[in-house]
């Protein structure tokens, strides 16, 4: 359904109004009204008044929602010209022509398309206070986590950490202990030193006999 509103004898040049009308033609009614509200030109202010009037006619006369309306067509026709005279030198006068416009805005009802979420986009993660995750490259270089060990199983690290057992020292007899001089076979040294001690004992005995005589 189309609803229109018209403003006549608007003191704006039609050329200037058509420039603004080209910017909002085909847009939704509320969006176009928002754009015209902050436009600095005089023609935008006049065009917005007509657009607001068309939206009001649709709501009051046909019970149409404002957010379901869009601009169908906009007509900017030239109205009657106002002629004025400006005094010039030597008793002459120049004519001043003030143009007017007839502005017509037609709005229509349309079915708003539901907003479609673009495919392939993901929502940004919300910030958390957890520890930051490692980067992809750092995670690849990091050593893999050790597997859980059951009480009956042992790993290489467990074997390495166990301290080596030391055997208890056995007591050594005085005859078996090596001398301070150090010899790998103390028994052999005893056998070799026995004749020498016998000779020395015999020499000492002979000396004692000679002294007794």
Automatic annotation (TrEMBL):
The globular domain of the protein is located near the polypeptide exit tunnel on the outside of the subunit, while an extended beta-hairpin is found that lines the wall of the exit tunnel in the center of the 70S ribosome. Pfam families: Ribosomal_L22. Keywords: Ribonucleoprotein, Ribosomal protein, RNA-binding, rRNA-binding. InterPro entries: Ribosomal_uL22, Ribosomal_uL22_bac/chlpt-type, Ribosomal_uL22_bac/org-type, Ribosomal_uL22_CS, Ribosomal_uL22_sf. The gene is rplV. It comes from Fimbriimonas ginsengisoli Gsoil 348. This is Large ribosomal subunit protein uL22. It comes from the Bacteria. Residues 115-213 are annotated as: Disordered. Belongs to the universal ribosomal protein uL22 family.
């Amino acid at each position: 359904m189309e609803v229109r509103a018209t403003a006549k004898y608007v003191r704006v040049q039609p050329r200037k109004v058509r420039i603004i009308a080209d910017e909002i033609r085909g847009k939704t009614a509320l969006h176009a009204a928002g754009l015209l509200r902050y436009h600095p030109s005089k023609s935008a202010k006049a065009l917005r008044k007509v657009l607001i009037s068309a939206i009001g006619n649709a709501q009051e006369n046909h019970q149409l929602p404002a957010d379901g309306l869009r601009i169908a067509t906009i007509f900017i026709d030239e109205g009657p010209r106002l002629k004025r005279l400006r005094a010039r030198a030597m008793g002459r006068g120049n004519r001043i022509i003030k143009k007017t416009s007839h502005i017509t805005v037609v709005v229509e009802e349309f079915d708003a398309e539901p907003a479609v979420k673009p495919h392939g986009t993901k929502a940004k993660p919300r910030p958390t206070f957890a520890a930051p995750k490692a980067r992809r490259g750092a995670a690849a270089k990091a050593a893999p986590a050790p597997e859980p060990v059951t009480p009956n199983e042992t790993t290489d690290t467990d074997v390495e950490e166990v301290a080596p057992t030391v055997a208890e020292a056995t007591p050594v007899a005085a005859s078996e202990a090596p001398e301070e001089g150090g010899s790998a076979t103390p028994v052999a040294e005893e056998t070799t030193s026995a004749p020498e001690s016998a000779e020395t004992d015999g020499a000492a005995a002979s000396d004692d006999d000679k002294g007794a005589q």
